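Project standup — Tuesday

K.O.: blocked on the structure for the chain from last sprint. Re-posting the sequence here as requested.
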Amino acid sequence: MTTYTPMMQQYLSIKAEYEDAFLFFRLGDFYEMFFEDAINASQILEITLTGRDAGGDERIPMCGVPYHSAQSYIETLVSKGYKVAICEQVEDPKEAKGVVKREVIHLITPGTIIEGKSVDNKSNIFIGCAERISEKEFAFAYLDVSTGEANSTIIEGGVQGLFQQLQAYHIRELVVTEELKILLQEQATNLGIVLSIENEEMDDVAAQKYLVNLPKKLNGVAKYLLQYIERTQMRSLSHIQPFTYTETKQYLRIDANSKRNLELLQSIRGKDQKGTLLWLLDETVTAMGGRKLKQWLHQPLANRTSIEKRLNIVTDLLNDFFLRDELRELLKSVYDLERLSGRVAFGNVGGNNNTVFPAIAEARGWNVNILNVFSGIAAMLEGVGVLVFSRIIKKVGPRIMIGAALIVTAVLMVIFGSTTNITIFIIVVLLAGFLGAIYD
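H.V.: unblocked you, prediction finished:
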């Protein structure tokens, strides 16, 4: 039996826990891959395959990518349906006794990628979870990790109905139990859908806040999905919203083939949006609005009362040019708060990252370190509603409001010893102050 070096033994022990993923193993300034991972990755990524002495009789296959440019390589692998486990050094090499301690800090999958050039600002990236209720029914839950949107429904039509729903929402990863994976594997492979196994549910207490709107028969599938997200992302889920329940009778059912033939969202010839109904209708000025429009086209309303309510709102805006024009101008200043919430919750927004609020940072020269303090930023906001509040803040002045908010925080920390119960208040005040400054 081959005896490998301590470092390679560490690699193999970690790799054993992530057999279905490429393991990006941090060594200095590179993420290295070994054995079969190295052979496969070198072919997919078109990088050089080399070798390394690891204590055995023969050199083992090895390839690597620079850590500072790893994102593009990760996106390539994920876009082809693979998973990538990021293994980092979690202690200072200078202080390590023996092999530097390493741990997987993040598992990136086709359904959980939240940033990069491949992420379309106006499209959701949903990951789904299915649980079989009967021969013809599936409990189905799906969410967008990048925005926190979470939905659920009962799918009728058996396995065929399930895959039609997956295609309709462009779901590339489906969480299932081992038993259900056997049933779905062949068709999922043909459609390019990755099946991921989760056999445990999230704890009832931890999951309760996400299930308040669900019927009991959907609780299980939602908890399976939440457990998978928590296990793979290893980060705060504070931006994830409670699951909503969609009754199928509320919406017009259009199968994937009909949507494709009608060219609602994608052109048959060019495989892009040009010439589609979405291309014709999309005059949205925010990423959040673009995603909402696409969801409406995915699920056209079938309930007359809901249709008339929506049309009445559209009519009001059409009849009031000045209100409509002012709203559009205001909305142009609204950043993608939903995806910002995900990045902040996952710790992907730096303290001095001026891309968060570039107009404010450039105009005022402010430092936005304070934003990194709060992890659930957009889960606690309602998008456009902040702009309304910001007009009130403008009357007082953003600097005064921020200062007041910090004083209130300090006082309440002294009194209660925690900011847990006042976080929402402080976030709203701070962001309203920042947004109010746009119009100052």
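K.O.: great, moving the ticket to review. Residues 354 and 365 are 10 Å apart (CA to CA). Confidence is low (pLDDT under 50) at residues 351-396, 416-422, 435-440.
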